[in-house]
Amino acid sequence: MEKFSQLFEGVLAFQWQFIIMYIIGGGLIYLAIKKDYEPMLLLPIGFGAILVNLPFGTIWEHDGVPGVLQIFYNSGILTEIFPVLIFLAVGAMIDFSPLLKMPKMLFFGAAAQFGIFLTTLLALYLNTLFPELGFDLKTAAAIGIIGAADGPTSIYVASKFATEWIGPITVAAYSYMALVPVIQPPVIKLLTTRNERMISMDYHDVKVSKVVLILFPILITIISGIIAPISTPLIGLLMFGNLIRESGVLERLSKAAQNELANIVTLLLGITIGATMHYEQFLDYKTLIIMAMGLLAFVFDTAGGVLFAKFLNLFSKNKINPMIGAAGISAFPMSARVVQRLAKAEDPHNFILMQAVGANVAGQLGSIVAGGLVLALVPFLLSL
Known about the structure:
Layout: H1 2-7, H2 9-12, H3 16-33, H4 39-52, E1 61-62, E2 65-66, H5 68-77, H6 81-93, H7 97-101, H8 106-111, H9 114-129, H10 137-144, H11 151-161, H12 166-178, H13 180-191, H14 194-197, H15 210-227, H16 232-247, H17 251-274, H18 279-282, H19 285-313, H20 323-326, H21 334-346, H22 353-383
Antiparallel strand pairs: 1-2
Helix pairs in contact: 3-4, 4-17, 5-17, 6-11, 6-16, 6-17, 9-10, 9-19, 10-11, 11-12, 11-22, 12-19, 13-19, 13-21, 15-16, 16-17, 21-22
């Protein structure tokens, strides 16, 4: 009997909760393959969730010895290496010239971070009603940062403030980023009239000199490092990647960052995050609450950007298409495409893509700065 049990120990150790996690993991893989929603991340996350919910979870830990995915987690997530390397790769991909041509779009990148702070306050309020949730200020901030619409920022903040919820927070962040074409249009249409969505905006193609493109990442790093020092790993690596791109003398490194580095780190990041989704932590009603609040954060971000644009129109002679505000989130370039598609649906001749891209690029910066502010403010408030 002992030999029999050893032979079938996996079968005997099987839990019914595993099946639920296989369905969740399979659902993420389905969205990645069938719907093409963030496949580079949702597919590894989905498969990682399946791997860690096999009997005994040997890929995470076996006989007290860390498994390969726990090693990746300890050395890549908890040490912040994976998120900051992703930022380096993203920086090498981003062209900031649309933003530099229209600097006022920075305001929309800031306004569209409204959902982060509103969701944080909502999580704290829920905790006052239901203390058993355990959503203290750090956890509430980690939940709110889902509204940054930036996966690496969400991972970075969660690794600092709420490691036990890093799985749900990351899955929510990347899932809702993938669902931006589904989430944003109803919110935009609810808050705007057809005439507002038909507003056309003049675009003047301004030449941005190479000197400006090179100085921009350097100056942004210095300024952000002085204002919010704790954000330096995020903003610094993002701007370093962009400097490599714009320098013009490191083309091989720029391409390596955009391709090989981005692909390898994204692959390891996704499957490692998926491995945090063990049923004992993930199958919890709090996970559903976190997912729901993450959705609200995206909705609030979109609403904040749109309402800010409408507010500016009260005082502006040259009206802004309020949909531009919705593109201020960090989901690049999906949000800009959504805005242009909605504008074209109302008026086939209305082209506001360049303004939307400018706001979307500003959202990339805005989300990182917001993450840095959260990392700086929360310890300060707790020290009072």
